[in-house]
Design goal:
With 301 residues, the protein is mostly helical. Helices cover 70% and strands 1% of the residues. The chain has a two-stranded antiparallel sheet with strand order 1-2.
Length: 301
Amino acid sequence: MKLFSKRGLTIKQFQRRGFWYVMPWVIGFLLFNIIPILTSLCYSFTDLKLLNQPKFIGFDNFKFMFTQDETFYQSLKVTLYYTFVSVPVKVGFALIIALILTANIRGLTFYRLMFYLPSILGGSVVISIIWKFLFMQDGYINYLFSFIGIPAVNWLGPNMALNTIALLQVWQFGSSMVIFLAALKNVPQDLYEAAMVDGAKRISTFIHITIPLITPIIFFNLLMQMIQSLQHFTEAFVITNGGPLKATYLFGFKVWEDAFRFSKLGYASALSWILVLIIVALTIIIFKTSRFWVYDEGNNV
């Protein structure tokens, strides 16, 4: 006896049609993701320069990276600081704005659109250029400060540059905000009503009801933003060019510099795979620790 789907096709015919629908994506994924990834893994064990044939050198790229390349450790330190500072602030700010936007106020859709807009524009070169003009020594931010008697701040100097470009990432909080909005709407209202009957204050309700129930979404946002932050490049390239004094020498910038400025494609491939391993290691740590703070409805943890 043949099994039929809702469209009158047999299950096998329905599955075959679905296979052809996803085939363009599968081909694109293989050509533009899997094959380049595996190719870069092979190149990481070679001495490859532009317009030259790769020369197999084994683990020499990795040995040089850990024993002789001082800029490797500088870029790693800068990137980890950039990530561990900007990501929690970004996620926390997104949650605060999402809470505000759950209120029943006029023009709510417009406000949500305006807050989400930076996430669409924020990663572009144009926005990075605007950010640079805003925070230059004689930029618009210091110009506004001069009206209220605040001395000019060297936003792009060695001590402030990394925090300045991290602020640009925090400004792009819209995607996390939208996810938080969906999570906040799914919190059962009867729990809030029960808390009100018991005389709980808003801050207590937020800490003991809202936060525990949206911890899976906090976990998701932290993980995705961490992975994205570790790969950032545009801001450091456009705003500070990795400086001053390598204060904004992000790992992504170092990979680009070794690949296209110094023509060390094999070494850049090795750096990329170290970044992959760092992302995997941090992801495993977050997953392992999530059982202590992420609410699991099935286990009531």
